[in-house]
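Bug: token stream looks shifted between consecutive jobs. Job 1:
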Amino acid sequence: MILPIYTYGNAVLRKHTEPIAATYPELNTLISNMYETMYHAEGVGLAAPQVGLSIRLLVIDLAPFKEDDPELGAFKVVMINPTLLERSEEAVAGEEGCLSIPGVHETVMRAVKIKIKYQDADFVEHIEEFEGYKARVVQHEYDHIEGHLFTDRVTPIRRQLLKSRLTSIVKGKASCSYKVKTA
């Protein structure tokens, strides 16, 4: 089932999320719905707050990049209760967009390499290191479960220049091809 994506201005996007247990009701259905929602919106990552749930859950599938990089194309993950353990001091700039902030793309600095602990859909714990684009996407989605958006990470000047576009999103004036829930 395709869920509405909550857009900029919705309070749930700014909340620090709660951990979930293996007893979370219909978790597998929620994960499936999140993937379906993400694919329908042509995204590569989606965090639970983006579908209105203040829980520590995110999904990522980098399959759209398989032609450019088979390693990225094989990266599909569910992360439950993730905790970012380490970030490299080395950072790199890259362009990001967000399904919750339609039509906005900005350059954001992200750590080149990260180490993260999480549980998969079967609640098996993993500690993994990611670098490059995988690290960028994981950090972007992780920010969502911490109540942050990529626009928080742009320079103050760029943030000022974005104000009117963000206000338009809050007012429901953003155009996108998927179902949204405005503030």
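Job 2, same session, no restart:
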Amino acid sequence: MVDFGDENASDFIVKLSDFYRYSLESRQKDVVPIEQELKMLSPYFFLIKSRFEEDISIEIMLSANHNGVLVPTFTLQLLVENAVKHNIISLDQPLHIEIVSDGNRILVRNNLQLKNIPEPSTKIGLENINQRYMHLAGKTITVETSNNFFTVALPVNEYISN
């Protein structure tokens, strides 16, 4: 980007720096407030958007009831990464990711448009998130796949909330 004089190069470098700094600061933490996780997701998604431009979007609609909820670090980033890895992203088939409140859960959902030639998946990412929720909250995540959507439901309970 810098070599070609891309006008977004300096923003990209700043966001990459923000994401890297957050990674270093948070690597020893088991959980972080959802607001901090969303703050980290912003520069990460900027990096993704730099690659896919208008072919990808994210919408965050969390209720005030979920303010202060603690989540395992990098949960949202891993789920966004999972959506990017497994789905077609193009002008004709844009990927839309939503992070929404749903009662005592936070849903991370994307429209389902699986790649014709799937990338190898070890399912370690989802299993890692599930194991951390089991350890921290005694609850499991729920993974739901329909014809149109892939949804991961993150439990919210008193044990891992402020």
